[in-house]
Amino acid sequence: MPQAKSAANSGRYTAPKPKSDKHSPYWLPVLMGTAFCMGLAIIVLNYLNVLPGPNPENRYLFIGLTWVILGFGLASTYK
Question: How many CB atoms lie within 10 A of CB 12?
Fold first, then answer.
């Protein structure tokens, strides 16, 4: 039965990535955390009836969820 070649014995060379490609910019985690906190704060304040308007409103819920989705989008690009 033939043996499978390992990556080290195959003769292929993969160049290392430059160090500048190995990490995200410093502002990305700050913006990501801010987006998560803003979304959470809007949703919680909506249900505590602190935001203007009668009773909890759907528009504040959607605004808060948009901020949270933005945070997850930024988290997917974080290295």
Answer: 8
Within 8 A by CB and 6+ apart from 55, the residues are: 49
Which pTM value belongs to this model?
A: 0.70
| Helix 58-75, helix 27-47: angle, nearest 10 | 160
The Cβ of residue 8 has, within 10 Å, a number of other Cβ atoms equal to: 7
CA distance 22 to 25: 10
Distance CA 37, CA 14 (A): 40
* Per-10-residue mean pLDDT, the chain, length 79: 60 80 85 97 94 89 97 91
